[in-house]
Write a structure and sequence with these properties.
- By secondary structure, the protein is mainly alpha-helical.
- The protein has 17 helices and no strands.
């Protein structure tokens, strides 16, 4: 039996299993970020460093996360989703151990960059697995369930991180990350089945061509930028909110963790509401309401420019409204972006994740040049909402822009005369 036949003979996983495994894989990145943020003041003190240098440990984590997706996704198209997940989980564990034992701030920064590399496979591969197994509204429902699971980890991680920092010390957060990375590797080895329909040779020239094709496909770019402007805001906020809530408002690490529950809690609530509504209507019908909530949250965030004395709830309630809207947007638009590209699902998911994470990294980096972090937050986060709304408007004006691959080359292709993308 050749390798392609071996892959094809493995039964695909159920929706429930894909949701649970996908949620665990996606959560590793945000959890590693959320656990670390309450520890940042302790890192400044321990290494006798500055806030700017310690902020670099977060920025480089994002950079490793964003850039490495472009490798992890195509690699999973070539050798399989399962082995790549195990390899990158191992990288994450080793990097977390390095961060735990780092003797200098420079070594910690390097370890954080490597952590980002290890965590990067989760987003790209989980979405590729969903694309391997499901299409249409079923795929959107799986994406929604992954979002629900994803919300739980980051919701409690800042609180756990704050309590660990308070009672055990800031290095303890890296011990928890090691355990989480081991859990991902174990689940991949024991519970995950290979879903790659047919391995694709990993050729750099062909890979570059795939990325150029995706970047030139208006359907893919408008759908992906809708996701990037929505979800990317969470990553941008992660670089700005610690300095607003703990630096300007004066919250303790544990209080910061509790405040972040407004963001994750409302995202979780939005995902539950969206899941209920999707039982009666198409996921695509939820995108405009979701973008409406994002726009409303962005408006309230923009009004913070005129806040002389920022308060925790004045900052976090708009952030929560924005997050509530994201839960409505993400399932349908993630499905729409990947639908026409079954043969390069890993590469497409990787590029979408790169745009999403890269948007957060770009905005966070620009924010570092602002003298006042609150001003940066009030200007830059609403700009991401504008990108999401404009991108989706262009997407809706051009529903014919899909370029499905030829049917004879596609496993699980749509029936003749029907595209993957037409919204119902």
């Amino acid at each position: 039996m050749n390798r392609s036949s071996a892959f094809a003979s493995v039964p695909l996983m159920t929706a429930q299993r894909v949701s649970l495994i996908g949620g665990l894989m996606v959560a590793i990145g945000p959890i590693a970020m959320a656990l670390y943020t309450p520890a940042m003041p302790g890192v400044v003190a321990a290494y006798e460093s500055t806030k700017g240098v310690v902020k670099l440990t977060l920025t480089l984590y994002f950079a490793g996360f964003a850039i490495s997706q472009l490798v992890a996704g195509p690699l999973s198209d070539a050798i399989g989703r399962r082995p790549v997940t195990v390899i990158f989980a191992a990288i994450f564990c080793v990097a977390s151990l390095g961060a735990l034992m780092a003797p200098t701030i420079e070594m910690l920064t390097i370890a954080r960059f490597a952590q980002g590399i290890g965590a990067s496979a989760g987003v790209a591969i989980s979405r590729a697995i969903v694309r391997d197994c499901f299409q249409g509204d079923e795929s959107s429902r799986i994406m929604n369930m992954i979002g629900i699971i994803l919300a739980i980890g980051p919701a409690v991680s800042p609180t756990i991180g704050g309590l660990l920092v308070l009672h055990v010390g800031w290095k303890s957060v890296f011990a928890v990350m090691i355990l989480f990375g081991l859990a991902v590797a174990l689940v991949a080895l024991v519970a995950m089945r290979e879903t790659l329909p047919a391995p694709q040779p990993l050729r750099l020239a062909a890979l570059g061509g795939s990325y150029l094709r995706l970047l030139g496909n208006r359907h893919f770019m408008t759908a992906s930028l809708t996701v990037a402007g929505s979800v990317g805001a969470i990553y941008a906020q992660a670089t700005l909110l610690p300095f607003i809530l703990m630096g300007q408002i004066g919250l303790s690490p544990s209080s910061f963790g509790l405040a972040m529950l407004l963001q994750s809690g409302l995202f979780f609530s939005g995902a539950l509401v969206a899941r209920s509504v999707m039982k009666r209507t198409s996921a695509y019908r939820l995108v405009w309401p979701g973008l409406g909530a994002i726009a409303l949250g962005a408006l309230f965030i923009f009004l913070l420019l005129w806040a002389d004395d920022p308060k925790t709830f004045r900052v976090m309630i708009p952030v929560g409204i924005y997050a509530f809207g994201i839960a409505f947007v993400m399932p349908a638009m993630s499905t729409a972006a990947l639908a026409p590209f079954p043969r390069i699902a890993g590469a497409a998911a990787a590029l979408m994740g790169f745009l999403q994470m890269g948007a957060g990294l770009l905005i966070g980096t620009i924010g570092a040049f602002f003298v006042d972090t609150l001003v940066a937050f009030a200007v830059l986060i609403p700009s991401m909402a504008v990108v999401a709304c404009v991108s989706y408007a262009i997407y809706r004006l051009n529903p014919h822009l899909a370029e499905p691959e030829p049917r004879e080359n596609v496993i699980g292709a749509a029936p003749p005369g029907r595209t993957f993308l037409r919204e119902e």
